[in-house]
Design goal:
The complex is a heterodimer of chains A (251) and B (327). Chain A has nine helices and ten strands. Chain A has 251 residues and is an alpha/beta fold. In chain A, the strands form two sheets. Chain A has a six-stranded mixed β-sheet, with helices on both faces. Chain B is an all-alpha fold and 327 residues long. Chain B has 13 helices and two strands. Chain B has a two-stranded antiparallel ribbon with strand order 1-2. The model of chain B has no long low-confidence stretch (mean pLDDT 94). The chains are: A alpha/beta (251), B mainly alpha (327). At the A-B interface, helix 2 and helix 3 of A face helix 6, helix 7, helix 8 and helix 9 of B. The complex binds adenosine-5'-triphosphate and magnesium ion. Magnesium ion binds next to helix 1 of chain A. Magnesium ion (MG) binds next to helix 1 of chain A.
């Protein structure tokens, strides 16, 4: 067990949609420098859990702590300002705007002063250089002036991450960053996320097991809203109940 | 210069050329007609900030238009009867000074927008449309049943209010004032659209979740633009009252809200000079078709339908072409 204070920790999160217990007393944490993968079958409640961590959905019970601070009652925007950067499973971007404009939006949010009504947003060199740097890091520099709607699905994933980078976050929350990237893209992204962990730890929902095994320091398995197990790659691979519930067929 | 900028310049020059021609041809009625179009354009520029940039479909902008109108009506009526507006706790006199009237119009519509916006922006979609409509109707019925300022009959002002250094009763000079205000309103809308605030606001229209995820509250962005939008439309209301030297509850009616929205949609939602084109075409149709048939609204409706179905960018979009993302 590590003794450092977790960057993110959730304790006893419960959420019910009618008869469906979508989060059932989920407790997990994200330590500095780690990539923590959250896996589980479709409909297990992973995205719903991410929503509760990010602030889009209030849990029925339980608490969310960010750097030791209870943020359970804070909304999404407030949590983001405290250092939580999330990417969406279904891209949420300003589709009519250019790629660069989306990244500048992130840089603007990071300043904490979005209500600047004078001067041109795209002419702010501080915002712009931060945005361009983030695009460069995810490999979207060539598409900076492309309209976001014209990006491929995979490029939108990259842009989601670039926007998250502009926030200088304390922790990244990523919902399926590899989805739709293809083998080549998936490998590039894996290599990139590997370098990112030194900047801030990552809680990552992912179905691509190759990526998960390559990246994760720890893996948590969620099934029907319940945490089945948390452990290292080796522990999870060899856990019989995990094999039965989730990995059974493909290992 | 982009194609849309050229269209904008042509539009604004055209709006200047018509009254100048009318002046030399001694056609004061045409000058007044153009002044009317310019004032309605200001109202539309106001709505377009909320509708085009914020995606806020407000059917209650008559509320601000009417408040601007009554700001003028109330101050000027006290000035013409030499009775103070109130004597306690401080004495407030009426005034016939346009700049003072404008300040009150901006203040009243700003406060009204802040209060009604704070409540209605908690809803979205069709609920937002209905709640803004309801707020507008509240003001309408209030004005109808307020006998002190004319109630249902409205309020006549006998002399046009004054602007330092100009003779406001001269149609061309009054037009110059209105045109100046229109330019200011367009400048404000343009500055805001390009600003960091405008970037965030436009993103909040497209994807509120994205804006929240970068730490910005869409609600506050919308409230800010709603207040600015209401103030611009309120100022237009004060000018409209001065043009007619008359205010009545109809300025608050939902038909007025609808007409302001028609200017915006006709001219092009989110296009800077869309409302200018929309108001000009509206006034032209009213003038030319209104003389031929009292059912000219049918033609307007048909035109609107064609625009909505086949030209999403409105008239400006039709001429200037599709907008491309740029930065
Ligand atoms: N707002 C909601 N109301 C009712 N049920 C919901 C709601 N949101 C999600 N659900 C249900 O909760 C369950 C968990 O959904 P969730 O999206 O969290 O799954 P997931 O683990 O992310 O799945 P996937 O791997 O397919 O992304 C699903 O059965 C879903 O239909
Ligand atoms: Mg999911």
């Amino acid at each position: 067990m590590r003794m450092t204070e977790p960057v993110l920790s959730i304790q006893g999160i419960c959420k019910r949609f009618g008869a469906l217990q979508v989060s059932d007393s989920v407790t997990l944490d994200v330590q500095p420098g780690e990539i923590h993968a959250l896996i589980g079958p479709n409909g297990a409640g992973k995205s719903t859990l991410i929503q509760q961590i990010a602030g889009g959905l209030q849990p029925d019970a339980g608490r969310v702590f960010l750097c030791g601070r209870d943020v359970t009652r804070l909304n999404t925007a407030a949590r983001s300002r405290l250092g939580l950067a999330r990417t969406f499973q279904v891209s949420a971007l300003a589709m009519e705007d250019t790629v660069l404009q989306n990244a500048v939006l992130g840089a603007l949010g990071a300043t904490g002063h979005p209500f600047q009504m004078f001067g041109s947003a795209m002419g702010r060199s501080a915002l712009r250089s931060k945005a361009e740097e983030a695009l460069r890091r995810v490999g979207l520099s060539d598409h900076a002036h492309t309209q976001t709607a014209e990006l491929s699905h995979g490029q939108r994933r990259q842009l989601e991450i670039a926007v998250a980078l502009t926030l200088d976050p304390k922790v990244f929350i990523m919902d399926e960053p590899m989805a739709g990237l293809g083998t080549q893209g998936s490998q590039t992204m894996t290599a990139f996320l590997n370098t990112l962990r030194s900047e801030a730890p990552i809680l990552m929902v992912e179905h691509d097991m190759e990526a998960v095994f390559a990246l994760a320091d720890r893996i948590s398995v969620l099934v029907y809203g319940q945490l089945l197990a948390t452990g290292t790659v080796a522990q999870i691979r060899n856990n019989p109940s995990v094999q039965q519930a989730y990995l059974g067929t493909d290992t | 210069m982009s194609r849309e900028s050229i269209v904008n310049v042509v539009l604004m020059l055209g709006m200047l050329a018509v009254p100048l021609w009318a002046y030399s041809a001694d056609e004061p009625f045409i000058i007044t007609l153009t002044t009317r179009a310019a004032i309605l354009a200001i109202a539309g520029v106001g709505l377009n900030m909320a509708l085009g940039q914020g995606g806020l479909v407000s059917l209650g902008h008559a509320m601000f238009f009417g408040l601007g109108g009554y700001s003028m009506g109330i101050l000027a009526s006290h000035a013409q009867t030499y009775t103070p507006l109130m004597t306690w706790p401080v004495v407030i006199e009426g005034t016939s000074s346009m700049p003072v009237i404008w300040l009150l119009a901006l203040l009243m519509s700003g406060i009204a927008a802040l209060i009604t916006g704070a409540l209605s922006l908690r809803t979205s979609g069709v609920y937002f449309i209905m709640i803004t409509l309801a707020f507008g109707q509240m003001f309408y019925y209030f004005a109808v049943s307020w006998p002190a300022y004319g109630g249902d009959d409205g309020l006549s002002i006998y002399v046009r209010n004054q602007f330092p250094g100009l003779n406001t009763l001269d149609p061309i000079q009054f037009f110059a004032i209105v045109y100046g205000v229109l330019l200011l309103a367009l400048t404000l809308a343009g500055i805001i659209a390009r600003s960091p605030f405008g970037l965030a606001l436009n993103a909040a229209r497209q994807s509120p979740a994205r804006v929240e995820a970068v730490g910005i509250s869409p609600y506050r962005l919308r409230l800010a633009v709603y207040v600015l939008s209401g103030m611009v439309t309120g100022l237009a209301g004060a000018l409209f009252a001065d043009l007619n030297r008359f205010v009545s509850p109809s300025m608050f009616s939902w038909q007025t809200s609808g007409e302001i929205m028609v200017f915006v949609i006709l001219g092009g939602v989110a296009r800077l000079c869309g409302p200018v084109a929309g108001a000009a075409v509206f006034i032209a149709l009213e003038h030319f078709l209104g003389g031929l048939s009292e059912y000219w609204h049918v033609y307007l409706g048909a035109l609107l339908l064609v625009i909505v179905l086949f030209a999403r960018g409105g008239l400006v979009g039709l001429v200037a072409g599709q907008r491309h993302a740029h930065d």
